[in-house]
From TrEMBL:
This is Putative Lysosomal alpha-glucosidase. It comes from the Eukaryota.
Amino acid sequence: ITVQSNVAEDIIIIDSDKYFYVAESKRLTLLYEFDMNQSYTVKFE
């Protein structure tokens, strides 16, 4: 899993059952339960 972030301004949901991105006060909170048999790249710009 690759997560790159320079900003934390948006709320982004990718596969709402498994991945939640929450922005609050420019701090990243990542709650995830990924299938490790797959490859994920998440980039926030």
